[in-house]
Structure formats: structure tokens, C-alpha cells
Write a structure and sequence with these properties.
76% helix
């Protein structure tokens, strides 16, 4: 069964030969593969943050039911706190308006009453 050539064997009277078709890659194909690899790495780097954000939000709500309820309550607490701050600001603005415009309102009421009295006396005089 000996062989003097690489890839050939003798079986009885018949000779079977295997050919090795491995060739060295060309420089062009190596560069193309490197460019493809660089693009794949760049794509992974660009998509990694969005995939991580999606997986974080999925795990946030994919936890056990108790964790879901606690998370929803914490979110509601944040919203209520923010709304309370906004309403407090609006209340202070309204109170400032009431204090500052109260004098103007009183003056306009007094002017309207004087005008009404003078108009009433003019009507009685005619």
C-alpha cells in the first residue's frame, strides 16, 4: 500500500488519485474579506447600543410579576412628583398674579361704581 506520490494510493491493480485543490488566496480576495469584516464589526458597534437598550427594557418588564408592579409604581411615583412640581409652579404664578392684579381690580371696581353713580344721577336729572 505504499505510495511514492502525495495523494495517490494503489488498491490492487487500480490506482486512485486524490487531487489537492487548495490554493493560496489572492490579495484582492483577502482585502475584500477584510473590508467585509470591518463593515460587520462597524455594523455591530452601531447596533449594539440599540440592542442593549431593547434588551434592558425587555428585561425590565419581563421580570417576575412582583418586579413589574414595583417598577410600574416607581414610574408612577416619578410622574406624580413631576406633576406636583409643575402644579406648584403654576400655583405660585397664580398667587403672584392675584396679589399683583388685586390692586388693579379694586381700582377698576371703584372707577366703575363712580361711573355708575354719575350715570345714574345724570339719568335722574333729565
Amino acid at each position: 500500500f505504499g505510495s511514492s506520490h502525495f495523494g495517490s494510493r494503489h488498491f490492487g491493480s487500480r490506482q486512485h488519485t486524490r487531487y489537492c485543490s487548495i490554493t493560496a488566496p489572492s490579495a484582492r480576495s483577502v482585502l475584500a474579506n477584510m473590508a467585509g469584516t470591518k463593515m460587520a464589526v462597524l455594523l455591530l458597534l452601531l447596533l449594539a447600543p440599540s440592542v442593549a437598550a431593547v434588551s434592558r427594557s425587555e428585561t425590565r418588564y419581563a421580570a417576575n410579576p412582583i418586579r413589574k408592579v414595583v417598577t410600574m409604581l416607581q414610574d408612577m411615583q416619578k410622574k406624580v412628583t413631576e406633576e406636583g412640581k409643575r402644579e406648584e409652579e403654576l400655583y405660585h404664578k397664580f398667587m403672584c398674579y392675584c396679589k399683583n392684579s388685586g390692586g388693579d381690580l379694586d381700582a377698576s371696581i371703584v372707577a366703575a361704581q363712580e361711573k355708575l353713580e354719575s350715570a345714574g344721577s345724570e339719568v335722574q336729572a333729565k
